[in-house]
């Protein structure tokens, strides 16, 4: 597949029927892999964050935009609902469905990871972390969310990957399991212990 433009992110359906891409931060393309063709093209005037996630059953496609996340119904390829944060600044770095598809997590560049119930759009968890959550991973049972990021700085960037935390999805509490923290060696450089 040769493309005109920049690919910001892509995902594949579990049954390998679709390859879904975000291109140029304004176009979603749904590729039929068997036919090597585009089945659906969705253009928006809004600037997409450049991340996407497909639910395990391929029913929902999550696409972050500014301070909200659009949830597309993949039967109609229309926005079914919008997930919002109560934060004034919400810049999504990663989105991920839980293995059951019940929850959607979003990693926030400025700090807090968020978790919503997909079916009703209810914000289930907004952590009170002060670190960025730039990478996300659910445990296989979907009961915990693992985030990686670093301290937010006034320069506008965190330190990706130097703090890993595990969050309980059902309670919203830090499971008291920071498993990596910044360390300083003799030269004063930061690393992982």
What does this 3D model show about the protein?
By secondary structure, this protein is mainly β. It has no helices and 17 strands. It has strands at residues 7-12, 18-23, 27-32, 37-43, 53-54, 60-65, 68-73, 78-84, 92-97, 103-108, 114-117, 123-126, 135-138, 144-149, 163-168, 182-184, 190-192. The strands form 5 sheets. A 4-stranded antiparallel β-sheet has the order 1-2-3-4, with no helix packed on it. A 4-stranded antiparallel β-sheet has the order 5-6-7-8, with no helix packed on it. Residues 154-158 and 172-193 have low confidence and may be disordered.
SSE inventory with pairings:
Blueprint: E1 7-12, E2 18-23, E3 27-32, E4 37-43, E5 53-54, E6 60-65, E7 68-73, E8 78-84, E9 92-97, E10 103-108, E11 114-117, E12 123-126, E13 135-138, E14 144-149, E15 163-168, E16 182-184, E17 190-192
Antiparallel strand pairs: 1-2, 2-3, 3-4, 5-6, 6-7, 7-8, 9-10, 10-11, 11-12, 13-14, 14-15, 16-17
Can you give keywords for this protein?
4-stranded antiparallel beta sheet; 0% helix; 193 residues; disordered C terminus; mainly beta
């Amino acid at each position: 597949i040769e493309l005109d433009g920049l690919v910001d992110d892509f995902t594949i359906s579990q049954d390998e029927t679709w390859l879904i891409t975000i291109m140029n931060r304004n176009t979603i393309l749904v590729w039929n892999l068997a036919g090597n063709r585009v089945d659906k093209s969705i253009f928006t005037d809004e600037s997409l964050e450049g991340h996407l996630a497909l639910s395990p059953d391929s029913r929902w496609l999550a696409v972050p935009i500014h301070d909200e996340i659009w949830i597309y119904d993949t039967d109609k390829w229309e926005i079914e609902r919008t997930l919002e944060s109560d934060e004034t600044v919400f810049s999504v770095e990663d989105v991920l469905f839980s293995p059951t598809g019940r929850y959607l997590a979003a990693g926030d560049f400025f700090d807090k990871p968020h978790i919503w119930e997909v079916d009703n759009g209810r914000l289930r968890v907004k952590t009170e972390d002060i670190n960025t959550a730039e990478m996300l991973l659910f445990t296989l049972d979907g009961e915990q969310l693992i985030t990686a990021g670093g301290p937010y700085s006034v320069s506008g960037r965190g330190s990706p990957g130097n703090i890993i935390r595990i969050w309980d999805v059902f309670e919203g509490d830090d499971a008291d399991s920071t498993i990596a923290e910044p360390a300083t060696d003799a030269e004063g450089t930061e690393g992982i212990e």
